[in-house]
Each structure stands twice: as structure tokens, then as C-alpha cells.
Amino acid sequence: MSLKTQRYLVPRDIPVRTTVVLAAGVLLLAGCGDSGSESGATARSARTDKPLTLDNCGRHEKIKSPLRRAVSLDQGSTEILLSLGLADRVVGTGTWTDPVMKGLEKANAKVPRLADRYPSFEKVLDQEPDFVSASFDATLGKGGVAPREQFEKLGVPTYLSPADCAKDNSGDDDGSRTDPLTMSPVYAEVRDLARVFGVEKRGEELVERLKGRMAKATKGIDASHVSMAYWFANSDSPYMAGCCGAPGVITRSLDAKNVFDDTHDEWPQINWETVADRDPDVLVLGDLTRKSQSAESAKKKIHFLETNPVTKNMTAVKHKRYIRLSGAAMNPSVRTVEGVERTAAGLRAFGFTG
Description:
36% of the residues lie in helices and 14% in strands. The chain is α/β, with parallel strands linked by helices. It is globular, with a radius of gyration of 21 Å. Residues 162-182 are annotated as: Disordered.
């Protein structure tokens, strides 16, 4: 779930100092070594003479290698770069919902966090980036950090996750999908970013590990008789997962049923009476550490569910069938695999194994 629906965010149009603009443009054009790739010489010989042109979400981004000063503006994008061993080339991150993925703590500690939410456009440019990536259209749009066109004017290439541009982001909410999300766009993002940084081999290895984890997590499980609902945040008007985003990947991989699979909205706000009426067998709860909505943590969600007169008699609540997921695992990213693993483990613990 992006920050698009959070009303405290306002569009920014901050004047940029001339020195910052010039630095960003000059850095893009200059070659600066190739630390961190498995074959620096190969990456240089393949890309120095001719820029790499990357087709991304309907845009053709020209990228000169080697990149050394990337800024990743969403947690999902950051965790891909860290998983590819590129911490030494990331000079800033922003927009976090959770602690970094397990195993990446040391790498993440080396990277400056520009903001827990959206950093300002000026603060991003202060890092003199030669590449900017994001997981959500809202981040690289009006009301986010800045539209992609603003970076383009300064000669800074941008990249948006294919998983997000595959949905309709034209409204004021988190968008909607005509076609159900699969893991293919996530794997494509890993490969794209690996290619941009000249570490294609690492990208393929990461994709294979993710596929292996998916296969292991879902082996022998049949939850076709199990109904589920996914609550991301907000106790007043809860954001519940629709059919076709990352929770849809989790649900379909386990052959389960999402009680709100009749909506194509990514994270529609649904009243509690409707949630109680659908009465899922299992509730998957976002366990977030941010503090921008009500009931962010799983603990607060459970307290609400067990004390609210509308929800306390729901099947999942009475039997305490709760599965806790990070917010990152409920968004399209490499963490979606973690979502599959944890949800499968939870269903097995509840006896829903076939």
C-alpha cells in the first residue's frame, strides 16, 4: 500500500539550487568506476560507449553506467538493491513502513535514510543522484517526491516498479487492477535493476532463490476451503485487500479465497459491518511500525478486533486466527515471498493443510 491515500501529504514544488542541478547533470554524464559489480570491466565495456536504454512503464530511460549514487524512494525498491549487494551505490532511501528485511540490517545501516516517509525533492537532489527508483507511481507523481519529468529535466533517469504501473493509478486511492498480479513483474524488477547496475548474474541468482522459496512454502498445502481477509491499516475505515494485488498473489498461491475478491481496487476502505458479514476464517494483519494511521501494529489491530462489538464475534477473532505480516510483505516486492511463507506457516498451524 502506497502513501497516496494519506492526506497529510501535499505536492511539493521546491526551488532547486543551481549548484545541485548542475551536479546532478554532470554526475549522470561522468563515468565513475564500478565498485560492487561482479565484473566491473565487463560492465564498463558493455555500457560506456553507448547508454543502456531501459523500457520502463511506457518510458524510455537512457542510463549511463556505472551508476554510483542511486536514491531508492520506497522500501521495496531499496530492499531489492540491498539484496543485490548494492548498498555501496545507494546514497539515500525514503518511505518505509517496517524494519528492513531480515539479513539486510548491516547493509541498510550503511545507507542514509532521507526520511521515513517522502523526502523532499530538494533533499533527494542534495544527494547528487545518478539514478532514482521507486515502488509506487504515487512516489514519483504529484503529491509524492516529484514527478518523473522533474528528474528527467535534470538528466536523472528514474525507474518505477513494473508491478505498480500495471495497475490504474489515475484515482486518489491506491489504484485498481484489471488483471491479477503475479510474481513475474517482481522478478522483472529484480532483473531490470540488476541490469542497470551491471550485476545481471546476481539478479538471476536472486530470482531463483525467490522462486525456490515460493515452491517450498506452498508445497503440499491446499487451503481451497479457507476464506481470508487482509487488513493493512486504519481502524475507523479499514484498508482491506482487494482481489488482485500482492495479497492476491499470496491467496492464489495457497488456493485460498479472499472474501473481498469481488473488488479490483488495490486497498479499498470497507466498513466493519461488511467485514463482519463476510466473516473470514483467517485474518491477515499488517504489523507496521510507522505511525501515520490508526491501528498500525498487529497488537493494536487485535485489541480493536477483540473489543469492538461489530468484530468481536467474527469467526477468525473468536478462534484467534491471526497471521501477522509486515506491510512490505503485503505490497508487491521481494517481500511478497515472505508473505507467502508466513501465511502458509500460519495456515498449517491452524490445521488448514489440505
